[in-house]
Specification:
6 strands; alpha+beta; 406 residues; 2 domains; six-stranded mixed beta sheet
Length: 406
């Protein structure tokens, strides 16, 4: 029995560690420690992306790079705030719990604990849901669903221990207080679908498998819906032009055609076989997801955020003070999108299938494809005159890590 208990504890521990490593990817990625983090986590992502069986797990099922003007997508994006809300309530729920433990007053029934038995696990689940929407990889969805079942196992283990310590008081508390949600809808569903399966652990495994399957299928449906809502247009030369912000088709095509009107651009594209082009402002904050080339900041932006250039020059050499100053400045501007830019940037990409052949426009956003930048063109936003033409490396700012494509 001791060996079994030890195995369960190790399983829970490593599941929590795995989820934490994946869940904080976005937080670490934008910090000065990105290179150190990806030196550990990166090979895992690359290994998953390299196999046809698992490459889908590194893809995104909701937009992160592109901002579609779609009511459903925008509504889902608003739920990202749950990441902060959940953590706030988690901290608040800790107050009565630890007060009760330190004062030795027995079973805690104050505050949130008077309504549900495990508010902290509930609020962690809510926060994790918001985090998953912010960085929506399939692999994070998989780990999130796994963590929900781990939370259930942890909660049951805690209840078993409390029943040993205070049997009468805790039995009464369990009988009068729901576990996670009022009315216990999860328990009702489990009993209706899996209640006859014995032993119970087998029913829980079946519930986990069904939940995971439905969640992944729903995520694929959301991905398909997202691709249909992207602000993109097919040019006369069959290239797909994707704008990171919603703009009229004619406006998108005008910028693209102005770039192709340059003999320098046409010469640089010879032999590149680029089949998709991303259109973004020169100072777009997610530029690094597509290319290693630095952003082009307008004089207006540099006047507002003078620390930008300094931080970009030393972004991987420490300097947490610089990082948090720029982060604070950008947080102050949340709720509005900067459109007063001076440079239109086009990043020409080549998207290949597993055999290394460029895919047709209809397949650009299928899972398991290889994407790499081949050319960067900057134009004046006002006149559409070409400012610069740069033949890029095959990498984005984080090397070959799978990154969002929409």
């Amino acid at each position: 029995m001791g060996v079994v208990d030890k195995g369960k504890k190790l399983l829970v521990l490593w599941t929590i560690i795995a989820y934490c490593l994946i869940g904080i990817e976005i937080i670490i990625m934008i910090s000065p420690f990105a290179l150190y983090f990806y030196s550990v986590y990166g090979p895992v992502l690359q290994a998953l992306a390299a196999s046809p069986l698992t490459s889908w797990s590194t893809e995104f099922f909701l937009p992160h790079l592109v901002f579609p003007d779609d009511p459903l997508i925008r509504a889902i994006s608003l739920l990202q705030v749950l990441m902060v809300v959940g953590l706030l309530f988690f901290a608040l729920a800790a107050i009565p719990l630890y007060y009760g433990r330190f004062t030795g007053k027995g079973v805690v029934v104050r505050s949130f604990y008077g309504k549900i038995r495990h508010p902290q696990y509930l609020f962690l689940a809510i926060s994790g849901f918001g985090l998953m929407l912010y960085w929506p990889r399939f692999i994070i969805l998989i780990m999130y669903i796994t963590m929900l079942f781990v939370y259930y196992a942890l909660a049951r283990n805690e209840e078993w221990r409390m029943q040993q310590e205070q049997p009468e008081a805790y039995e009464h508390y369990m009988a009068t207080t729901p576990m996670f949600l009022p009315g216990e809808p999860g328990g009702w569903l489990y009993r209706r679908i899996f209640g006859r399966i014995r032993p119970k652990w087998l029913g829980i495994v079946a519930a986990y498998c069904l939940t995971m399957t439905l969640a992944v299928l729903l995520a694929f449906a959301l991905r398909s819906y997202t691709v249909r809502t992207l602000p993109l247009v097919r040019a006369a030369d069959s290239r797909l032009v994707v704008s990171v912000f919603s703009r009229p088709d004619q406006e998108i095509l005008a910028v693209y055609q102005a770039a192709l009107g340059s003999a320098q651009v046409r010469e640089a594209l010879q032999g590149k076989e680029a089949n998709v082009v991303y259109l973004l402002p020169g100072d777009f904050f997610l530029n690094a997801l597509l290319t290693e080339e630095d952003r082009r900041f307008s004089d207006h932006m540099l006047a507002r955020f003078p620390e930008i250039l300094e931080w970009h020059q030393h972004r991987f050499s420490g300097g947490l003070g610089r990082f948090f100053r720029i982060f604070y400045n950008f947080v102050r501007t949340w709720g509005s999108v900067e459109t007063n830019f001076e440079v239109e940037r086009l990043i020409f990409m080549r998207v290949d299938d597993a055999s290394g052949h460029p895919v047709p426009p209809a397949n650009i956003f299928k899972v398991g494809l290889k994407r790499r930048p081949v050319l960067l063109v900057d134009l004046e936003a006002s006149s559409h005159a070409v400012r610069s033409v740069v033949i890029t490396t095959d990498n984005h700012k984080w090397g070959l890590m799978p990154m969002p494509t929409f």
